[in-house]
Design a protein that fits this description.
heterodimer; A: 326 residues; 5-stranded parallel beta sheet; B: 327 residues; alpha/beta; 13 helices; 12 strands; globular
């Protein structure tokens, strides 16, 4: 019944928070209070709150907030990444953590291919020339690099990486992958992917290097000076993981010196970059503002999954996507 | 040997409209080249030598006055697959063959079609502009695109290029519809999961993305007009990699402005480039690239090599591999 709905804390609707098109999902199962209103009277509101429904890492699950929420049972995060969460700390308070893997994969794989193709075929530069008030004839020197038949090296062959491989196969790309664990023979056959146990080999052989790993201590700065120097000078780096997986200073250096040819990034560190960051003015760099899951359909699926997870925790049911501290 | 090399007329090397040096070098291996500017300084002297006219990006234009100054001309060898810029019957009437370069353009053009589709759907242009804008302080939450995976793709014109577009979109689990003068084989349909739409109207009503991949002919001029655009979903995107004239541009502007379709992504317009005050240039949901469907070094090289092959066959009196024969 209406009155029995539990209370959940969110950042806000609009601006940096949820889009209007998903508020119906939140309100179906929860009384919602946004962070600004919560802070007006945290002593009154705090004890009611059983769930934090976290979107774009907000509100941040810091001790200063969690200490005001004695009834908190779950931090339900929207999205697959959990690098912004101190899971052991939250678990030590007796609070569950959940994420939304799976539903993000198609949209993220689509953006990965979109960035790869837009970079390779110089779509943004082409458009800007096509609409430039000062051009009078078409430039013949705007040449891209061939995608069909090129070599795609996927670093991180999880759910998203595998879907990228499926898409790359349609372009007759030769697909290499590097992963902590090798995929099954059937999985490899289905997309024509060859395993490279040594990541260096993948870096040397690839025309497009695709970062699709989780951000962990092991993958922080996974691609730095040495890795970039192994890449072909004609190669493109595509990053749809997290900014911190790539050493950005090393990337700037490699792009400026011609160590690699181009980069296409949906993620940076921080987001957005400082306005004077060198990556913003390099000609061969394409950046999108973390839009990997930015469709209404995928956003709704993420919010639905996030809410389902929170409801399951509060009802003592099996939790679909619990993130356990290891 | 040098002495055996025949003469060919080209537009120019370098500059805005000419061949890249490396590409001209491919032709120079087997032909003496004369540029149009030099030719026009003394057509009476140069004309009788020229046996092949190589056309790159529609230049030089194969007009009657030029052709009549080339009495020894055997072949007009055009780079690319489209021949809508050539009056083939007229040229044949002068005893001159016409050749194009089919096949080698298909992968690159299909790749470009997918690049346009994805860039439009996921607002990559807008995203990049926001990401690098000096005034940006936060990630934009409202920059929402449309879903590509499992969306419906309608391919109008299922030739070599259309078929390769179908192959690529299969990887995105798209539902593929196609309309073509003739139906493809069962095997081809099964390989791509493509469903034949005998009526273009059906394809237009059901598709989230309509990709135009037909040749430009008298039958396909204005194929997509006001009526066709009104049949499309208001959320749909039109992608054109064929020729500008296949689409009624005024109708397209109206459909975009009124929200009768969602967006357009065009590698081709009419003319190219558009006049600088053309309304298409100012619409927010339009992505335009300056006819770059074959603009990769690998494909450009493959095209020029095919042009060369056709030219050599003609001067040796052999059958021209890619001769354009009229129905």
């Amino acid at each position: 019944m209406e009155d029995n709905k539990p209370w959940a804390l969110i950042s806000e609707v609009g601006d940096q928070g949820y889009i209007e098109e998903v508020t119906d999902i939140l309100e179906q199962h929860f009384h919602i209070i946004c962070h600004k209103d919560f802070l007006q009277n945290s002593l009154v509101h705090g004890p009611k709150i059983q769930a934090i429904l976290m979107w774009n890492t907000l509100p941040a699950a810091k001790p200063s907030l969690l200490s005001l929420l004695p009834s908190l049972k779950v931090v339900a995060s929207g999205g697959a990444g959990i690098d912004h969460l101190d899971v052991p700390y939250i678990a030590s308070l007796g609070v569950k953590v959940t994420n939304t893997p799976g539903v993000v994969s198609d949209a993220t794989a689509d953006i990965a291919m979109g960035l790869l193709l837009a970079s390779a075929r110089r779509i943004v530069e082409g458009h800007l020339i096509a609409v430039d008030p000062n051009i009078t004839c078409l430039p013949l020197k705007l040449m891209g690099v061939e995608v069909t038949g090129s070599t795609l090296g996927i670093i991180g062959m999880g759910h998203i990486g595998y879907k990228i491989a499926q898409r790359g196969k349609g372009f007759d790309m030769k697909i290499l992958y590097h992963n902590r664990n090798r995929r099954s023979f059937e999985d490899e056959q289905a997309v024509g992917a060859s395993y490279r146990e040594n990541m260096d080999d993948l870096l040397k052989e690839s025309d497009f290097v695709m970062m699709a790993v989780n951000l962990t201590p092991e993958t922080t700065d996974l691609i730095s000076h040495r890795e970039l120097s192994l890449m072909k000078p004609t190669a493109t780096l595509v990053n749809i993981s997290r900014g911190l997986v790539v050493d950005q200073d090393a990337l700037v250096k490699a792009l400026k010196s011609g160590g690699i040819c181009a980069a296409a990034l949906d993620v940076t560190h921080p987001e957005p970059l400082p306005r004077d960051h060198p990556l913003l003015c390099l000609p061969n760099v394409l950046i999108t503002p973390h839009v990997g899951t930015n469709t209404i359909a995928t956003t709704r699926k993420m919010v639905l999954k996030m809410v389902d997870n929170a409801v399951a925790v509060l009802n003592g049911q099996v939790i679909p996507n619990e993130v356990k501290p290891n | 040997m040098e002495e055996d090399k025949r003469w060919a007329l080209i537009s120019e090397v370098g500059g805005d409209t000419g061949y890249l040096e490396e590409l001209a070098d491919v032709l120079k291996r087997h032909f003496h080249l004369i540029c149009l500017r030099e030719f026009l300084q003394n057509p009476a002297l140069h004309g009788p030598k020229v046996q092949v006219l190589f056309i790159w990006k529609f230049l030089p234009e194969a007009e009657p006055s030029l052709l009549r100054s080339l009495p020894a001309l055997l072949l007009v060898a055009s780079g690319g697959v489209g021949v809508d810029h050539l009056d083939v019957p007229f040229i044949n009437g002068l005893g001159v063959k016409v050749a194009n370069t089919p096949g080698v353009v298909s992968d690159s053009t299909a790749d470009h079609a997918m690049a346009l589709l994805l860039a439009s759907a996921r607002k990559i242009l807008d995203g990049h502009q926001i990401a690098v804008d000096p005034k940006t302080t936060h990630l934009p939450q409202r920059l929402m695109g449309v879903e590509v995976t499992r969306a419906t793709l309608g391919i109008v014109g299922m030739g070599d290029i259309g078929y390769k577009i179908a192959q690529r979109s299969k990887g995105f689990e798209m539902k593929i519809l196609y309309h073509n003068r003739t139906r493809r084989t069962g095997a081809a349909e099964r390989a791509t999961g493509a469903e034949f739409c005998r009526r273009l109207d059906d394809l237009l009503k059901r598709s989230d993305f309509v990709v135009i991949a037909v040749k430009l002919t008298a039958d396909t001029t204005g194929l997509i007009g006001r009526r066709e655009l009104s049949l499309m979903k208001p959320t749909a995107t039109l992608v054109n990699v064929s020729r500008g004239l296949v689409v009624d541009q005024d109708a397209l502007v109206e459909a975009l402005r009124s929200g009768r379709i969602g967006a357009a992504a065009l590698d081709v317009t009419h003319p190219e480039p558009l006049p600088r005050d053309h309304p298409l240039l100012g619409l927010p949901n339009v992505l335009i690239t300056p006819h770059m469907g074959i603009s990769t070094n690998a494909t450009a090289t493959a095209i020029v090599e095919k042009m060369l092959e056709n030219g050599l066959a003609a001067v040796k009196g052999l059958p021209v591999p890619d001769e354009v024969k009229l129905q």
